[in-house]
Design a protein that fits this description.
The protein is an alpha/beta fold. It contains eleven helices and six strands. The protein has two domains: 40-175, Rossmann fold (3-Layer(aba) Sandwich), CATH 3.40.50; 185-239, Winged helix-like DNA-binding domain superfamily/Winged helix DNA-binding domain (Arc Repressor Mutant, subunit A, Orthogonal Bundle), CATH 1.10.10. It starts with 22 loop residues before the first helix and ends in a 6-residue tail after the last helix.
Length: 245
């Protein structure tokens, strides 16, 4: 047995531990009972049955799901409160999608590793995810075989892409300049909510701002995009992955 050389040996008159052990034995007990804590995960998907299936997969591998969420905002609240190792999220969640939730996590919980679950293997989605700070990008068709490996890789500091993602996509991401998104993070959140059919009053309530501020965000994003009809805003949001159809 390895014994830490810095342990202090007891001398005559030392008090026994709470279970009758000597102080030396108590220190050995603490030293020998040290164990690696399980990886702590928050799971976010707006479908309860999907969460249940993924949770079973994770727990079979000894991982600990510390909280579940049905949208990106709830996932962020849990992450701020619980400081997990990893947040596994569906890309297409209501009120705040996985991509925008990853951006928020990078700001408020930079040590947390976001992993996105998605059906999209198109280059624009992968590039947007990497730019948002996503550390793992797993295709839904490969969850059972790849999610555990993705978690292991991101915990080692690597970026993980499903085998279904072309290596050319990653090479293109690393070699080119990325187009600047004209919208701020808050404006993208407002755009998603508009595309989901929320009223200005609903948007204000969900974002915790005044109706006037919500109207201002809407006006600015429409001006930036040179779009002036709600239907066109919805098409833009779908094209850029802010909402799923």
């Amino acid at each position: 047995m390895y014994v830490n050389a810095s342990l202090k040996l007891p001398v005559a008159g030392d008090l026994a531990g709470p279970c009758g052990e000597t102080p030396f034995e108590a220190q050995l007990l603490v030293h020998c009972e040290w164990r690696i804590m399980p990886t702590r995960i928050i799971l976010a998907d707006d479908h309860a049955l999907v969460r249940q299936g993924i949770k079973s997969l994770l727990e079979r591998e000894g991982l600990q799901v510390v909280a579940e969420a049905s949208d990106g905002r709830e996932a962020i609240r849990h992450a701020e409160a619980l400081a997990p190792d990893v947040v596994v999220m569906d890309i297409g969640m209501p009120t705040l999608n996985g991509m925008e939730a990853a951006r928020e996590l990078a700001r408020c919980c930079p040590k947390v590793k976001p992993i996105l679950l998605t059906q999209h293997d198109e280059p624009q989605y992968v590039s947007a995810a990497l730019s948002a700070g996503v550390k793992g990008y797993v295709l839904k068709s490969q969850i059972s075989g790849e999610l555990i490996h993705a978690i292991q890789q991101v915990l080692r500091g690597h970026v993980y892409l499903s085998p279904g993602i072309s290596g050319a996509v990653m090479a293109a991401y690393n070699s080119r300049e990325h187009p600047v998104d004209p919208l701020t993070s808050r404006e993208r959140q407002v755009l998603q909510l508009i595309a989901e059919g929320k009223s200005t009053k609903d948007v204000a309530a969900l974002l915790g701002v005044s109706v006037k501020t919500a109207e201002s965000h809407r006006s600015r994003l429409m001006q930036k995009l040179d779009i002036h009809e709600t239907a066109s805003l919805v098409r833009y949001a779908v094209k850029h992955g802010l909402v799923q159809i």
